[in-house]
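Limitations
The C-alpha cells in this dataset are predictions for the assembled complex, not deposited experimental models. Users should treat interface geometry with appropriate caution, especially where small molecules or nucleic acid strands are included. An illustrative entry is reproduced here so readers can see what is and is not provided.
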Amino acid sequence: MKIAILGYGTVGRGVDRIITERVPSVEVARILELPDRITDPRMTASYDDIVSDPDIDLVVECMGGLEPSHTYILSALNAGKHVVTSNKAVVAAYFNEFATAATKTGVAFLIEATTGGGIPWIAGIEKVRRIEDVNSFYGIMNGTTNYIVYSMLKDGSDFGESLSKAQELGYAERDPSADIDGIDVRNKTIISATVAFDVACTQDLPVTGIRTLTKYDLDLFGSRDMTVKLIGRGVQKDGRYAVAVEPMALPTASLEANVPTNFNLVTLDAPSIGTLKYYGQGAGSLPTGNAIVQDIIDCEQGRRPVYDFSRGLAYDPDLLRSDYVFRTDASVSGASFYEPGAVVVKGLTAVEARAKFEEALKADPTTFMAALVAGQES
Amino acid sequence: MKIAILGYGTVGRGVDRIITERVPSVEVARILELPDRITDPRMTASYDDIVSDPDIDLVVECMGGLEPSHTYILSALNAGKHVVTSNKAVVAAYFNEFATAATKTGVAFLIEATTGGGIPWIAGIEKVRRIEDVNSFYGIMNGTTNYIVYSMLKDGSDFGESLSKAQELGYAERDPSADIDGIDVRNKTIISATVAFDVACTQDLPVTGIRTLTKYDLDLFGSRDMTVKLIGRGVQKDGRYAVAVEPMALPTASLEANVPTNFNLVTLDAPSIGTLKYYGQGAGSLPTGNAIVQDIIDCEQGRRPVYDFSRGLAYDPDLLRSDYVFRTDASVSGASFYEPGAVVVKGLTAVEARAKFEEALKADPTTFMAALVAGQES
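Predicted assembly:
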C-alpha cells in the first residue's frame, strides 16, 4: 500500500521512520511539505499531486488546525483514499461530514491518534461495540493538566510553577490555553462520544478547565481524601446522552487519582464486559506516531469503521447530575457551607453547574469549581 | 460461520447467548455435553460428531482441565478448524504444540479468554508486536488474591476471613490453592510471555503465592508506604528472557496498589509506545464469554496469530533481580534487618529468592516473602 503524509513535523517524521523501518508492506510515497522545506524526492508542496495520484491509497494527516486540514481530508475521502489523522480539532469539528464521505466512497476514516495518543482507546471502544453498547466513558485525556496537578501535589509548587515545569518538559505548549481551559479534552470527549454512542455532538457540551486551581483547593479536597483531575465524560441511556468536561474531585484511592506525570487513563463501561480502563502516554511523537501506524496496518487488514448517526440520540443534561463544590468569594445561589471559602450545591447538571461557575467568575475571577463523584457527596 | 462449543457451563452458555443474540453471522451449530445432560437438538455427547463435521469452522473449548481438552483442541486444529479457548491450564501446558498445529493447517488459535478475562490483553500484546518488540510485562492477573489483599486492608480482616468472603462472593473456588499458591498466575504468565516474547516457557518459572500473607505483613509494608500484590511478570533483553510469579511490595501510590476488589491490571512496556496498562474484570462468565466472542469475531475477520518459537530465546534469571523481604523466624543467609520479625536480602534473582523462601519455610512454615520493586530498595 502506498501512502502520503501531510505535515512533516515530529509526528509525521515518526510515522515515516516507523513505516520505513518496520512495515515493509507500506510505502511512504509522497510527503506534503512547505515549498521552502523540500529536501526529499518524495516531497511536494502541492496537495493536488497527492490527491490526484491514483497510486496513493491512504493519506495521513498530521498537520493540525482546521484549515486546510478539513479541505484536504474531505477531498481525500471523496477521491476514494483512506484517511488516518491525529488532528483532534478537525475531527471534533467535522466528524459527521468526514464519516459520511468515507461511507459514501467505502474507505476507512481512522482516528486512533486523536484521542489518548498511543492508548488503543478508539479501537477499544469499537471492539466493545461489536458486541454491545457502551453505557458510559470518562477519563483523564490530557497529560498537561494531569502533570500540573501531579506536580502541585508532589512538589508543593503552585499552578504557575507547575505549568512552567510542564512547558520546560515539553508537556505544555507556550500558549497553554487549549490544555488548561479544557479545549483539548473537549475535542477528545466529542470524538469519544461519537465513537461510543454514534452521536456527533459538537454543541451542548459544558467545558470547564483547571486554570483557577490553587494549592488551597488541592488541600481542601485532600483533607476529604480526594484529588482533583480534569475529566471528560459521557453517558447514554434510553436513547439520550450527555457529555461534560470539568474538574472532578475523585477519591485518593481511585486509579485516576494516582495517575502520575503526563499519563492518561480512560475508562468505558458496558453491560457484559463491565469496566475497562486503558492507561498510557496520551501525547508525544512516538506514541502518536505509533497510533497512526496501527491505524494504517488496521486499514490494510480491512478495518472500516462505520458510524450511524441516523438514530439521533437526544441530548439530555439530566443524565449527568452531581454535587458541585465552588471555592469562591462570590455568592452562589442554592449553596451550603462545604469548607472555609468553599460551598457546595447539590444535584446540579453539568450545564447548570457551568452556568453558576460563569456567574461566580464575574464576582470572583479566581473561582474554582469541581464536581463530586457519586458516593463522595457532602 | 458455524461453530461448536465444548463444555456448557456458565461460560459456554454465556457464549451461546451472546452469539445467538448479537452476532448474526455466527451460528452455534453443535454443543458437546455429557450424555445425561442433553436437552437441546444441537447437543451431542460425542466429540467425533463435531470434529468430523465439515460444516463446523470453529471450536470453542471451555471445559477446563488438561484432558480431554488437550486432545480435543489438537484434533480440531489438525482437522483444520479454528480453536478459541478460555482454558489457561491446557494452553500454558501445550502452547507450542497447539500453535505449531494451527500454523500447519493455517487456522487460528485464539486465547484471549485465558488471561485477563474480558481485558483485551492478548490482542493488545499482539497489536503492539505488529510494530515493535515488547520489553516487559507485569501485573495483577488473579482477582481472588487481589480481593483477599483488598479485603484485608479495607476491612482489617485476616487472610482466612478474606478468603472466606472471596468464596462467598464467588471469586474463589472451594479449593483455593490454584489462586493463593500462584498456579493460576503462573499459567497466565506463561501465556503472556509466549505471546509477548515468542517463547513457550513451561519451566524455569519460580512461583510463590500469598498463602502465608498476614495482617502483620501488610502493616509492615504499609508503614513504608507499600502494599503487597501477587504479580506475574516477564522481561526480555538481548535474546534472553526471565519470568516470575511472586508477591511484590508496590508503592501505595502505584495504580496496582489501588486496584479494588477482584479486578486485574496488566502492564506492558515497549520502546515507542511506552507503558500501556489494561484494567478490567479478569474472570467471571460474562467478561470471559465476551472475550471468547471477540476472538470468534476476530477469527471471522481474518485474525491468524503466528508464533515463532524458532529464535530460541535463552532463559536468564539474572534479568529479574530485586531486593527481597522475608518475614520469618527462620535464619536467612545473607540477610540484614528490615523490620521487627523481617529481614531483607539484596539483589537476588527470583530463582534465588524462591530457593531461600523454600529453605525458610522448612524452619518456619509461616514465612512470607515479597520482592521490592526497583526504587523501593531498603
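Some entries come with short summary sentences. For this one: Chain A has a mean pLDDT of 95.
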